[in-house]
Amino acid sequence: MTDTPFRRLPASAIAAFAALPTSSISDALDRLGLPGAVDGLRPMSPGARVAGQAVTLRYLPVGTGGGTVGDFLHLAGPGDVIAIDNRGRLDCTVWGNILTEAAKAQGLAATVIDGVNRDVGESRAFGYPIWSRAAHARTGKDRVALEAVMVPVVLGTVRVDPGDLLCADDSCVVSVPLQEAEAVLAVARGIEEKEEAILADIRAGVDLAEARRRHGYHSLQTRPR
Predict the structure, then answer these.
(1) For the chain, where do the domains classified as CATH 3.50.30.40 start and end?
(2) What is the pLDDT of residues 81-125, one digit of tens each?
(3) pTM of the predicted model, to two decimals?
(4) Which residues contribute to the annotated binding site for substrate?
């Protein structure tokens, strides 16, 4: 791994994000007035939950015979998430089982692709989480070119900078700006605590509407005025 051009979050902070559902993180982003929830990406290996800092890649389309998918895993370290901006393309892949095995061997946390990937069964069997728009078999070789690495990219409509925190589970992929990570974590933890309190009340026989009222459910995600 080369030196990364972003501030490293403490492992304890990343673990704290990984312990939270993306729903609470997304609500925290809403409360703070920050974008972050990426539309349209789904888990290729349901049941995984990850958090890690983004190592970003951006691809360009090319004609037959041009371009290369590139080599980039040396930029990432253990626990990082590869974030690939392939402009949402559904016609060719930028990730398959060779990358999966190499990424797993390096201790990477996951890969998130605004586009498609292949060799889904192999990735599931290998235990490496991937989020993308869909599965497809057609190679990206001679169809895409690696334009840039460690630059701002766009996943869906969300800008992701190198080092931003990507959190993903069965519900969603969310991006937390690096400079806002501490604030988002504090708010997300508060939201999760209130939702757990609501559930505890319901389990104790409290009416749903009353439990929600007690803990301010309807304004948990609302930005203070």
Answers:
(1) 35-176
(2) 999 999 999 999 999 999 999 999 999 999 999 999 999 999 999
(3) 0.92
(4) 96-99, 118
CA 164 to chain centroid: 10
3-state helix, strand, coil in the chain (%, to 5): 35, 25, 45
Residue 4 — φ and ψ, nearest 5°? -85, 145
Place of tokens 């004609």: 63
Nearest to 159 by CA among 74, 58, 89: 58
- Phi and psi torsions of 25, nearest 5°: -65, -40
Kindly report the CATH class assigned to 35-176. Answer: alpha beta
* Residues in binding site: 96-99, 118-119
Angle at 99 between CA 96 and CA 103, to 5 degrees: 135
Say which amino acid occupies 64.
T
Query: CA–CA separation, 168 vs 131, rounded Å?
Result: 8
**Residue of 2, 3, 6 lying closest to 176 (CA atoms):** 6
- Going by the annotation, the residues of the binding site for Mg(2+) are 119
